[in-house]
Design brief:
UDP N-Acetylglucosamine Acyltransferase, domain 1; 9-stranded mixed sheet; binds guanosine-5'-diphosphate-alpha-D-mannose; binds magnesium ion; 8 helices
Length: 331
């Protein structure tokens, strides 16, 4: 069975970390984000098609050379690059020629969870659904960040029929429930023909609503679930997965320096009497002596000389091809 991993967003909410790396390779508690997604794949999945565009080469190189892991999980990886971002459904259409199974998974690459995709596959098959999405219940205030379903009846297969789908409601009051698209779904072959080729298409806005009359279901998932889409949620995910996690290898903390509620990549140094709080540091960052950083995101290789609060710290030019504003998922 095939799984498509949607890994082509620019990750603008995580800039400047995503200036130098594709979002799926940013570390979450010391492991590339995409590894947490691959962990969830059930044994039925033997082929993984990764739909990429920004920093495609880096992601391709990583997947070809996963140390010792690719051999162990015996899966085939196919990296499909889009010349231009095609949106979440356009990317699926672009992978069509590599799909071999009738049912296939589509997974967002930025979800850290313990969802049971094997159980979802069983329920999807038993319900004979055309599409089944993993559902997570979130607090009402959070629904505006996600796709929200209007639930119908519970089926004997353990799924819930979906009667409406609202992507990112403007106001919580406009959301039909607190059940959101958890960024993992199963689709049947015939859904592919609903997606026009070669253009930007949003799965959530343009395709999901068309599935409702055809048998569109949801499957509730338990346990921790975090969309690692912005710095706060990245910190949250790191600390949920490993309460003691602070930094990657070769981290140096100077005398009287503090590093609280923050995470750092490889080879970072926080010099004497510096204080770092609520920050995300990329690889090879140095925070100079006595500097206070609060709620900042610091790009790879930066040397931070001045104190700052709520800043994105990047002193080099923004790389060519990186968008000036948030692109999101073709919404
Ligand atoms: N290949 C490709 N091409 N991938 C893309 C593109 C594209 O043009 N645009 C976005 N993606 C990938 C992103 O890399 C990410 O893994 C996934 O698609 C979802 O995009 P996000 O930009 O992270 O969307 P979101 O978090 O705002 O919303 C989505 O996820 C929520 C759950 O976290 C939607 O699917 C919501 O309905 C959902 O609730
Ligand atoms: Mg996301």
């Amino acid at each position: 069975m095939d799984a498509i991993i949607l890994a082509g967003g620019y990750g603008t909410r995580l800039r400047p970390l995503t200036y130098t790396r594709p979002k799926p390779l940013l570390p979450v508690a010391g492991r590339p984000m995409i590894e947490w997604v691959l962990d969830r794949l059930p044994p039925e999945v033997s082929r993984v098609i990764v739909a990429v565009n920004w920093k495609a080469q880096a992601l391709g190189a990583y997947l070809q050379n996963r140390p010792g892991k690719a051999a162990r999980d015996r899966r085939t990886f196919i990296v499909v690059k889009e010349d231009e971002p095609l949106g979440t459904a356009g990317a699926v259409k672009n992978c069509e020629k590599f799909l071999t199974s009738d049912s296939f998974f589509v997974l967002n690459a930025d979800i850290v969870s313990r969802m049971d995709l094997g159980a979802m596959l069983k329920a999807h098959r038993a319900a004979r659904a055309v599409g089944t999405i993993a559902l997570k219940e979130v607090p009402l205030a959070d629904v505006v960040n996600f796709g929200v379903i209007q639930p119908g009846a519970t089926t004997p297969a353990g799924t819930t029929t979906i009667q409406g789908f609202v992507e990112k409601p403007k106001d919580p009051a406009l959301a039909p429930s607190r059940l959101i698209n958890a960024g993992a779904y199963l689709l049947e072959r015939r859904v592919r023909s609903l997606i026009p080729a070669g253009k930007m298409v949003s799965m959530e806005k343009e395709i999901f609503p068309q599935l409702i009359p055809q048998g569109f279901h949801g499957f509730g998932i338990d346990g921790p679930w975090i969309d690692v889409g912005d710095p706060k949620r990245l910190l949250d995910a790191c600390h949920t997965l490993d309460a003691h996690f602070k930094a990657g290898p070769e981290f140096r903390l100077g005398d009287h320096a503090t590093f609280t509620g923050s995470v750092a990549g490889k080879g970072c140094t926080v010099r004497a009497s510096a204080h770092v709080e609520g920050c995300v540091l990329g690889d090879g960052v140095t925070v100079d002596t006595g500097v206070h950083l609060k709620d900042c995101v610091v790009g790879d290789g930066e040397f931070v000389r001045d104190s700052a609060t709520a800043q994105r710290i990047w002193t080099k030019p923004v790389p060519a091809g990186y968008p000036a504003s948030q692109v999101g998922n073709a919404l």
